[in-house]
Amino acid sequence: MARHGELRTPGPVGFVMKIVGIVAAVLLVSGAGVAAYAATDVVASFADGAVDLEGQGTVPPDIGAIEGGVDLLLVGTDECEKEYAYLFGDRCTGADAEGQLNDVNMLVHISDNPRRVTVVSFPRDLMVPIPSCTREDGSATPATSKTQINAAWGYGGLSCVAKTIKELSGQNIPLAAKVSFGNVINITDAIGGVSVCIGNGGIKDMYTGINWPAGERTIQGVEALQFLRTRHGLENGSDLARISNQQQYMSSLARKLVSDEVLSNPATLYKLATTAVDNITPSKSLTNPMTLVQIALAVKGVPFEDIVFVQYPVLTDPADDNRVVPDYESAKALWAALEANEAIEVTHDQDLTGGVIVADPQPTEGATEPATPDTTATTDPNATPAPTDTPVALPQNIPGQNAAQQTCSAGNVRSKG
Questions:
Q1: Alpha-carbon distance 17 to 229, whole Å?
Q2: Do residues 278 and 189 make contact, with C-beta atoms less than 8 angstroms apart?
Q3: Are the C-beta atoms of residues 110 and 70 closer than 8 Å to each other?
Q4: Which terminus of the chain has a lower count of CB atoms within 10 Å, N or C?
Q5: What is the spatial distance between Cα 168 and Cα 174, in angstroms, rounded to a whole number?
C-alpha cells in the first residue's frame, strides 16, 4: 500500500486542520443549527467576511421541501492564530506564518425525505483538474488538468475549492464554510470532550507526543489535536489511514452532540454556538439564521445508521506513489446512491484501512472498557423514522463508517495474545 504523503511530511498545523473540518462538519450535520441557537448579535457576527460562491446554484427557500437534498462544503485552513501559534513550532514562526493553507475538504450531503446525511472526505493529496477561478481582485486563474486538490484554495479561496469539488462530484454546492484550526480545542472543550477507542495495544507517536494504552479515552483540547494529527501512530502511517481514524472521532462526536448531555443543556448549547460562529467564515448563502435553522430541522432525528462518513475513492497515482487520483467508477456508484436517496452501506473492510480496526481493544490494567454507543438520544416522536429499504452496498474502494458503529484506532503496536 502506498504511504501517501510520506515524502513530504506536513507541518503540525496541517494535521490539525483535518480536525477542524471534522469538528465543523459534525457540528453542522448533528447539531448544526446550534449556531442558530445563539443570540442575534452572535449570528450577525457570523456574516463578517462572508464569501460569494462562483458558479453555484441558489439555496432553496425551504430545505425541507427541496427534492434531492442540499450539499454543504467545509474547508479547513491552516492558519497561525496568535493564541495557538506556540503549539506548532516552525510553521507559525517561519516565512509562511501569515499565510492560509488548505488542508481538508469535506462535502456534507443532506438528502430529502427520508433524511440521510453523508460526509465525503477528499484526501488532500488527490490529483484533480482545477477549473478557472475568479480571484478577489476579479482576475481569472488558468484551468489545470491535474493539480493537487488543496492548491485550489490558493487559486481562488473558498469559492475555487467549491467550484473544483462541484466539477469533481457533479454536485451543486450552494453552501460553504471555511474554518480555522483553533476550533478543535474550543469545541471539544465546549462539550466536555469526546470518547475514542484505542486498539492494537495502544498508540505511540513521537511526532504528536502520544503514548496511550489500549482502551477508551476521553480526549479534548490539546489531546484531541494529538489524536487527530497522528499518522505515524497508526498501523500503516498513511494520510488515508488517518482519515479512517478521524472518522472514528466524527462518529463519536456525532453521538455526543445529539446526546442529552449537550442538547438538553442550554449553557453548553450556547457555548457551542458562540464557539462555532467565532471560528467559521461562511459563504454569504450560509449567513441567514433561517438557513441554519432549516439545516438543523433537516437533520433532526436522522438515525445514526444514516449518518455516514466516507472517503472519496482513490487509486495510487501512476506518476507518483505518494499521490492519489480519483477512482471515478467507484465514485459514480456513490453519487448515484446519493442522487437516488438510497441508504448506503460501507463494505470496505475496516481492518484493512491501517487507521482503525473493528476488533475490541485489549486495555492495559486499569483502563476502562469502551462503552456501547448510546443511540437512545435519537428517539423522538417527531424524528424521521428509520428507513426500512435495503442499503446499497458501496464499492469496496470506499472506506468509511456510520455514526452508529464504534471502531478503534489501529495503533502501530499490535497487542500480543
A1: 9
A2: no
A3: yes
A4: C
A5: 15
> What's the pLDDT tens digit per position in 49-69?
677 777 766 655 555 544 557
Question: Does the CA dihedral 233-350-405-397 come out positive or negative?
Answer: positive
Between these two residues, 84 and 32, which has the higher pLDDT value?
A: 84
Q: Which three cell numbers stand for residue 328?
A: 471515478
Q: Which three cell numbers stand for residue 415?
A: 497487542
Q: What is the phi/psi pair of residue 314, to 5°?
A: -135, 165
Q: Which three cell numbers stand for residue 349?
A: 473492510
Per-residue pLDDT at 207: 77
DSSP conformation letters of 274-338: HHHHHHEEEBGGG--HHHHHHHHHHHTT--GGGEEEEEPPEEEETTEEEEEEE-HHHHHHHHHHH
CA 44 to chain centre: 25
Rounded CA-CA distance 256/378 in Å is: 11
What count of other Cβ atoms lies within 10 Å of the Cβ of residue 177? Answer: 27
Q: Are 237 and 231 in contact (CB under 8 A)?
A: yes
Residues 79, 82, 84, 89: what is their CA dihedral angle, to the nearest 10 degrees?
Answer: 70
Question: Distance of CA 213 to CAs 19, 182, 370, 380, Å?
Answer: 22, 27, 13, 37
Residue 373 near residue 207, CB atoms below 8 Å:
no
Q: Is 366 helix (H, G, I), strand (E, B) or coil?
A: coil
Residues in the chain: 417
Tell me the per-residue pLDDT of 360-411, one tens digit each, with 9 for 90 and over: 545 444 444 444 444 444 445 455 444 456 899 999 999 999 988 889 999 8
Q: Are 123 and 102 within 8 A, CB to CB?
A: no
Query: Which residues are bridge partners to 196 per DSSP?
Result: 217
DSSP helix/strand/coil, 189: helix
CA–CA distance, 248 with 411 (Å, rounded to integer): 13
The pLDDT tens digits of the residues spanning 302-329 come to: 888 998 999 999 999 999 999 999 999 9
- State how far Cα 66 lies from the chain centre: 24
Residue whose grid cell is 425541507: 64
Percent over 70 (pLDDT), the chain: 65
User: SS3 of 378, please?
Assistant: helix
C-alpha grid cell, residue 157 = 479561496
CA angle 22, 199, 106 (to 5 degrees): 15
Q: Let me know if 347 is exposed, middle or buried by CB neighbors in 10 A (0-12, 13-18, 19+).
A: middle
